[in-house]
User: Which sequence fits this backbone?
């Protein structure tokens, strides 16, 4: 009986530690997107370079839509991952950046500072595309398969592991 | 240069606190006693080091030195000096620096104040406090370095968090809260010292009484100031949302309040030793859990800072503190058992114990509700949130029971109460409560919560007033003083008791204000064209015009403002706005609040149409809200009165030689 009292310590400490530990890596604001399994919204916007880009140009191949902004800190962290993915997959995968509540000049300064991504970024001046995709704040990234169906979403910054996992869902294995 | 000095001071602070831990432990284990002095000086030095760090950060913010990442992320070249200065605690790394300043300050103060006393306890108190501070400095040296540089250096920063820049309360709420949080490490340190040295009698309880009450006052005022800030800034018309971080501040407050009450019983009648130690441990661990919840981003909240690498460090600290303290507690269990004198079922002791049970019940309920989203997330992977209705339903009955005990407990005698005493003390207040409740019902007040709380408050207040009245009259009779003098002397010579009554009075005022303001508030959403008038309660609100312009003191911020005139119990004009900050994806509401003693008129702008000038307004008429803040102030005043040093027996004079040795009124 006297020894049993020592059990008090692990009984209190272990569950609390486990509970708080599971909180890491989960984002409490992350809710499942109702868009998964739905056709991606179609759009046509002008890019930072001044060309017109539309969903028709993307048809037939999987693509990634990344909402970002120059004022967003985590976007800096995921920038090299996006750039690296573009270099790895080349023509197999189209990547599109969408500016979220940001000015073109600020976005250009961001790309000049952190390195050009090599893929196109479109302006979404009225935030219409962000609304269509239900974006709450950058960065958010959507993965669309070759049939134009949204298959996965990442809320918050991407890591190499998350990127590989999401890309696998739309049929791309690095 | 200045950031380098700041970083160096943090490293020096870490070295000093590590040294202090070693010195105190060696001294406690019988090495050279001069090590205690040396350790104390190292702690005072760590306080100075944290001070230098805070000054360096403040200068960097004021100078907009964007080579420092923290400055670049929380400041812009247009940020006004006041906002720059308070940005020290506006985000993660800076707030830890500020935190370290306060934590080392408490440690230095305690060690200095008791430098010549309690030679057995103090080395362990010093070692415990210094260990806590080692953690904060280590966080700043490794995962949460506030002076981290950016390369290449940007020419403009992101600017401060939009929510933090539109109210001066931001200068008040976090420092008060942090002072409370950090100060609650002191009773924990004494509890640990008492456990280690086996000095588990009443000595440590007497010392920590004041060291618990002072941080408790700061924590109380910090929580009230936070509620006030949320009311004035967030624009949803309320002041308490059961947000995880509000709960995180409330949890240690509840256990600290329970300890303040139970320690009185333990001091006076012995016993409750396990309970007292467990409460100070729980309080301290809950302050760490609260910090963890705010700083690690594991729960969604207005307060949660971005996810960062310091989460695991905090988790480790929580587990080490909890496991260490519990191990010590279990080890000393045989010495902790027993020692109390028995007492009757209806007595002040039993009221205090019941009070503790209720406080603990509240703590568990709120902790459960706060951690439930984590538990569900961990087991099923779903994301849920536990909302205000759940918390209100679960906690309201406990709060009401506590309110009742608050009136009954202090009026009961220690030991055992007779029926005659009970009848004598409670009959008149009970009658008064019944009369007031009947009058409120007759006047047409139908909200059950409001009426019930009002009646209860009258009962409790009546018991208290009657108690003070009888005490003053008894003193006036026996000492031949006039009643006013008797009242003054009675209260100033029993500061603990009457300060406590004043705190209870403040709580009563807050309870009534909360019940009435939540039960009888009117709230409506209206859309009005320019020149159009809407009626809400007794008010007529007229929309004059819509203005869109940059802010005078920061042109990057665009304000969309509805200019309104209002007439009714109060009349005048107000502007309520939505502000677009360049670094915030959503516009920030700037509600207009017009306060009177009877009610607040609270107007928030929800939407506007720049073409027609039409606006959609959310208008609240919130009765008695100002009394919540007044009640908070009464609590502050009462607790300050309670800890004010009690005057010793009056100096002997020739006219009054009999004053010496006159029976003290202590414990009346």
Assistant:
């Amino acid at each position: 009986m006297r020894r049993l009292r020592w059990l008090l310590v692990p009984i209190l400490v272990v569950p609390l530690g486990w509970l708080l530990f599971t909180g890491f890596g989960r984002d409490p604001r992350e809710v499942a997107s109702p868009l998964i399994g739905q056709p991606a919204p179609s759009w046509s916007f002008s890019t930072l370079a001044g060309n017109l880009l539309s969903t028709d140009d993307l048809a037939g191949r999987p693509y990634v839509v990344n909402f970002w902004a120059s004022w967003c800190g985590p976007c800096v962290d995921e920038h090299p991952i996006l750039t690296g993915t573009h270099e790895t997959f080349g023509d197999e995968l189209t990547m599109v950046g969408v500016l979220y509540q940001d000015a073109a000049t600020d976005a250009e300064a961001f790309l000049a500072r952190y390195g050009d991504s090599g893929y196109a970024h479109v302006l979404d001046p009225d935030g219409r595309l962000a609304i269509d995709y239900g974006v709450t704040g950058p960065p958010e990234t959507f993965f669309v398969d070759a049939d134009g169906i949204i298959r996965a979403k990442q809320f918050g910054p991407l890591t190499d592991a998350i990127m590989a996992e999401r890309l696998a869902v739309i049929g791309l294995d690095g | 240069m200045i950031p380098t000095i700041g970083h160096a001071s943090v490293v020096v602070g870490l070295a000093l606190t590590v040294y202090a831990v070693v010195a105190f432990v060696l001294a406690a284990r019988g090495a050279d006693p001069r090590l205690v002095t040396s350790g104390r000086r190292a702690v005072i030095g760590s306080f100075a080091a944290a001070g230098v760090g805070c000054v360096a950060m403040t200068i960097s913010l004021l100078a907009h030195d964007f080579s420092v990442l923290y400055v670049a992320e929380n400041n812009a070249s247009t940020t006004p000096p006041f906002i720059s200065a308070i940005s020290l605690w506006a985000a993660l790394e800076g707030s830890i620096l500020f935190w370290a300043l306060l934590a080392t300050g408490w440690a230095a103060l305690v060690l200095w104040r008791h430098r010549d006393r309690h030679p057995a306890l103090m080395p362990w108190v010093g070692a415990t406090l210094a260990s806590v501070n080692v953690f904060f400095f280590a966080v700043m040296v490794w995962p949460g370095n506030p002076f981290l540089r950016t390369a290449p250096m940007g020419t403009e920063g992101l600017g401060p968090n939009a929510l933090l820049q539109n109210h001066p309360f931001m200068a008040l709420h976090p420092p008060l809260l942090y002072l409370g949080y950090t100060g609650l490490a002191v009773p924990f340190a004494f509890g640990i010292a008492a456990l280690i040295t086996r000095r588990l009698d009443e000595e440590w309880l007497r010392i920590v009484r004041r060291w618990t009450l002072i941080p408790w006052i700061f924590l109380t005022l910090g929580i009230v100031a936070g509620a006030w800030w949320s009311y004035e800034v967030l624009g949803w018309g309320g002041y308490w949302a059961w947000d995880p971080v509000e709960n995180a501040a409330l949890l240690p407050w509840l256990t600290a309040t329970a300890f303040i009450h139970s320690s009185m019983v333990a001091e006076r009648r012995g016993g409750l030793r396990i309970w007292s130690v467990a409460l100070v441990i729980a309080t301290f661990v809950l302050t760490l859990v609260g910090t963890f919840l705010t700083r690690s981003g594991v729960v969604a909240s207005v307060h949660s800072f971005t996810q960062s690498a310091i989460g695991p460090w905090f988790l480790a600290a929580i587990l080490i503190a909890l496991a260490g303290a519990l191990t010590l507690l279990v080890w000393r269990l045989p010495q902790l058992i027993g020692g109390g004198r028995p007492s009757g079922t209806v007595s002040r002791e039993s009221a205090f114990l019941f009070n503790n049970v209720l406080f603990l019940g509240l703590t568990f309920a709120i902790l459960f509700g706060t951690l439930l989203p984590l538990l569900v997330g961990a087991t099923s992977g779903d994301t849920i949130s536990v909302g205000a209705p759940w918390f209100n339903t679960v906690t309201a009955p406990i709060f009401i029971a506590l309110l009742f005990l608050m009136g009954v407990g202090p009026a009961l005698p220690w030991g055992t109460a007779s029926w005659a005493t009970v009848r004598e003390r409670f009959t008149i207040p009970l009658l008064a409560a019944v009369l007031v409740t009947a009058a409120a019902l007759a006047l047409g007040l139908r909200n059950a919560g409001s009426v019930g709380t009002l009646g209860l408050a009258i009962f409790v207040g009546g018991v208290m007033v009657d108690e003070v009245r009888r005490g003053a009259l008894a003193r006036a009779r026996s000492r031949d003083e006039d009643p006013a003098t008797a009242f003054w002397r009675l209260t100033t010579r029993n500061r603990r008791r009457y300060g406590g009554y004043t705190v209870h009075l403040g709580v009563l005022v807050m309870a009534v204000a909360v019940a009435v303001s939540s039960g009888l508030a009117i709230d409506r959403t209206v859309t009005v064209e320019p020149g159009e008038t809407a009626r809400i309660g007794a008010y007529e609100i007229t929309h004059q015009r819509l203005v869109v312009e940059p802010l005078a003191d920061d042109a990057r911020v665009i304000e969309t403002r509805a200019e309104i005139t209002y007439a009714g119990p109060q009349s005048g004009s107000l502007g309520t706005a939505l502000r677009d900050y360049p670094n915030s994806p959503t516009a920030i509401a700037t509600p207009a609040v017009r306060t009177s003693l009877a009610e607040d008129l609270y107007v928030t702008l929800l939407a506007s149409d720049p073409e027609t000038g039409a606006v959609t307004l959310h208008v609240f008429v919130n009765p008695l809200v100002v009394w919540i803040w007044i009640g908070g102030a009464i609590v502050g005043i009462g607790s300050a009165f309670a800890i004010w040093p009690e005057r010793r027996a009056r100096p002997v004079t020739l006219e009054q030689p009999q004053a010496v040795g006159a029976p003290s009124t202590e414990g009346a």
Summary: The first helix of chain A runs from residue 8 to 22. The helical segments of chain A are 8-22, 55-58, 73-89, 104-114, 128-133, 160-169. The interface with chain B takes residues 5-6, 8-9, 12-13, 16-24, 26-31, 71, 73-74, 100-101, 113, 136-138, 156 of chain A (CB under 8 Å). The domain at 34-169 of chain A is CATH 3.40.30.10 (Glutaredoxin).
